[in-house]
Amino acid sequence: MSNPGLLYVTMEPRRHDEEFLNQFHEWYQNEHGPTRLRLPHIFPNGFRYRATDSLKPEFLAIYDVTEMRHLETPVYTQLRGNRTKREGETIGQVDVDRRFFDLLGEQAKEGFTKIEDLSDREAEGQVLIAVEVEVKGGEQGEKEITKWYLEEHIPMLSKIPGWLRSRVCRTPSLIEGGDKVRIVTLHEYEKVNGLGGEEHKASMDTKWRTEVFDKWITAKHRRTYELFYVFGPGPRELETLSKLPESKGFKWEDGKIETVPGKDTAAVNAYVYAKDGLTIRYRLEGNVSPKAPTVAFSNSLLTDYHMWDELVAILKAARPDLRILRYDTRGRHEIPLPPVPATLDMLADDLQTLLKGLRIEKLHALVGVSMGGATTLKFALKYPELVDRIVACDFNVASSDANTAAWKDRIVVAEKNIRDLAGVTVERWFHPHTMTEKPEIAKWMTDMVAGNNVEGFKYSCQALWGYNMREEMKGCKVNTLFVVGDGDGKGALVKAMEGFKANLGEMGAELKIVPNAGHLPMSEAASDFWEAINEFL
Questions:
Q1: Helix-strand-coil split of the chain, %, nearest 5
Q2: Predicted confidence (pLDDT) per residue in 334-349, tens digit
Q3: Which three-class secondary structure state does DSSP give residue 202?
Q4: In the chain, which segments carry CATH 3.40.50.1820?
Q5: Pick from 62, 120, 355, 508: most CB atoms within 10 A?
Q6: Is the per-residue pLDDT at 9 higher than 90?
């Protein structure tokens, strides 16, 4: 039998110095919470609240639980049991009260939107009233209290301006057992509300309420909180991370999650899962404010997000107002099982999933090159509400039979020795000027290409087979800039992009050409590429 409920955790740090509080919040928001939300079959959401009633404990975390029985399975018990060293050290300095609640019933405002489906801007500051009553009279007492809440009290609360939802819960949960039963009600309100007004006072003064409290309740406890953080499966907390010393950096044993502290160096390297379970690795850095506008970068095939390193260094210096998101395209590290050929739709969906996992409401800009350029345009066409402007570089709006045949030939080379493919690929990509005058960049890129997962390349390159956005691009509503290296394809791609730039949307797109650069101008000539895009950004 399905039995939904909640995990309800109150916390009070024993230390209140600034460094420990930053450590506590950074650990909870970058490690503890996201780890649980990467188990969406158990925890579909998670929230942090801060008390507004001056009582202790000050901090509260609530996670919805799809079925309480999941909390008895090894997936969850091992998660709790296998704490990292940092988690053990941090939680050892915090008083924690962790409880399971069975959900008995709920009522919500018509058109109610769950917190996890709101943006951070919309959700911040929502009010939570938690009321706990101790029950007497056993099962009959539980029944009578629950009946009163659902049939009278909550319907009266619903008349209070700003009321959103009320839930009635029981603790201890049936999976725990226990004799001393409490009924806990959680009432959610908008930041601006009518608590304390006439409607609220009326709900607290009825004959039925008096009877219930006289006969079935021995004690009542009430707490008030405001929402200050909504978890996603992707760690994104840079603000407190920037206030920590270098020694407080953290890295998981598998290397998939790393936090880099420091005022000017704060960064999170982590991952979320794509819709098919594939890992999408990303790096978040730049402006540490969660409200900062975000620029994202989409890589070319066979590269990783380090291909943007030099450009990102320029961007961080020139535009300290921007938060910067880079991620590795599917196929860089692994493939889904069973293996499935990638498509541009799939690559656009991966980015949408990443933004949702990081709770990024809308990108200020998306910049992509080659396969990332095609992905960028596809993303703007499919999710125009998620991006303000795009820069699509060194790509074509449609594939050809000749290109598909070339990719098949390259797969054969990669399966024999991917380093051979890397060498010929970089020679094909890069401008002769780069190959002769910047050999260190050519070697860096060759090593990057050679590090690609071979099976990943085999299936991800198929996103560039048989696609055509010529007609679709005519309906583009997103402000767009096209950029190309003057030597890409010995000038052939310049002509191709000049040929289709006028077909984008109603007004067409501007095309900028980067001198002495080939297929990856942002890697070959980062300063010139920045000069081409900085006004547009």
A1: 40, 25, 35
A2: 888 889 999 999 999 9
A3: helix
A4: 290-533
A5: 355
A6: yes
**Strand order across the beta sheet in which 267-273 lies:** 250-251, 258-260, 267-273, 279-286, 323-327, 294-298, 365-369, 389-393, 479-485, 510-514
- Residue extent(s) of CATH 3.30.70.100 domains in the chain: 5-230
Cα–Cα distance between 387 and 363 in angstroms, integer? 5
What pLDDT does residue 492 have? Answer: 96
Query: Whose CA is closest to 91, among 166, 141, 153, 27?
Result: 27
In the chain, the percentage of residues whose pLDDT exceeds 70 is: 100
In angstroms, the Cα distances linking 183 to 104, 130, 145, 219, 448 are 9, 10, 8, 11, 58
Q: Which residue from 121, 537, 46 is spatially nearest to 291, judged by alpha carbons?
A: 121
Answer CATH for 5-230 from 3.20.20.60, 3.90.850.10, 3.30.530.20, 3.30.70.100: 3.30.70.100
By CB atoms closer than 10 A (0-12, 13-18, 19+), residue 356 is middle
User: Which of 269, 266, 271, 270 minimizes the C-alpha distance to 286?
Assistant: 266
Range list of β-strands (E), 148-197 = 163-171, 182-189
The confidence band for 2, taking pLDDT boundaries of 50, 70 and 90, is: low
pLDDT per residue as tens digits for the range 186-218 = 999 999 999 999 999 999 999 999 999 999 999
pTM assigned to the model? 0.95
Mean pLDDT confidence for 234-261: 93
ω before 338 within 30° of 0 (cis)? yes
Q: What is the pLDDT of residue 256?
A: 87
| CA nearest neighbour of 100 among 181, 164, 163 | 181
